[in-house]
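User: My collaborator sent over this chain with a note saying "see what the structure looks like." That's all I know about it. Can you take a look?
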Amino acid sequence: MEWGDFMSKVKKNFKSYFETTFCILLGNALLAFLVAAFIIPNDIVMGGTTGIAIVVGKFFNIDTALMVFVLNTVLLFIGLFVIGKKLFFTSVASTLLYPAMLALMQKNPNIDNFTKDTLLASLFAGVLMGLSLGLVMRVGSSTGGMDIATLVFAKIFHRPVAIFVYLSDIIVVGAQAVVNTPEQIMLGIVVLVLETIVLDKAMVYGQTQNQVYVVSAKHEEIRRRFLTELEAGVTMSYIQTGCFGDEEKAVMCVIPTRKLYAAHEIIHDVDPEAFVTITKIKEVSGRGFTAERRFANLDIEE
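Assistant: Without extra context I'll predict from the sequence alone. Here is the result:
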């Protein structure tokens, strides 16, 4: 291996490790903050091991952070024996970090003074929860806790993981109905809905692109201008028109939203009657996106 390739590999690995560590730390810190600042002070219903810990704490006066740590640790080792070592190592960081950070957050005497409006607290809790879980999950790590339990049950009963995710949320939220009012339960549902929406967005943030597909008799000029003016990779595909059966070529490229206007202008300038479809893509990988972009010296005829 040449020195340049070696250094490139080291740089890439360092960047990956740094991003993973940063997202796990920030995600767990954000989760601990929202629980200490909004969930616990306003008695908002929450799923997962935190929800279980809140219920147990109300009956037995046990510290929430300590109960979360115990539950997460037990589930972590169950996952080690049932699921395997890979899940164990991807979950151990959050299993230890989250309860430790929650305990630190709760020691701040002003942590519960952000708002006394339960609806506002629920809105902030749901958004921040989705963001925090998204940060952890997008780097391939697990948040531990009930995530492990759902994977264990899915393996034992040979059913989709989603079924046990929904069941665990229903059971935990239902258990809190014993010690909470109907209004608090409804606010808890608001938190879960917002969490799901934001989590989905956070998982793919910065990765969404637009696929532009152009069918035109002037495909060569459109291809040339996409390559030179947009600096976008282009794929050509052979097609046959449905009405007349003519053999044609179509131009396909994937570009960010900021280049859509320029693409529209190029297409309209070359062929105003071109057939164009634009599709939103949640994730793109490969050369030019997740791999380093390379520019070729192309001799494109005018």
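A starting point for your reply to your collaborator: Residues 3-39 form the longest helix (37 residues).
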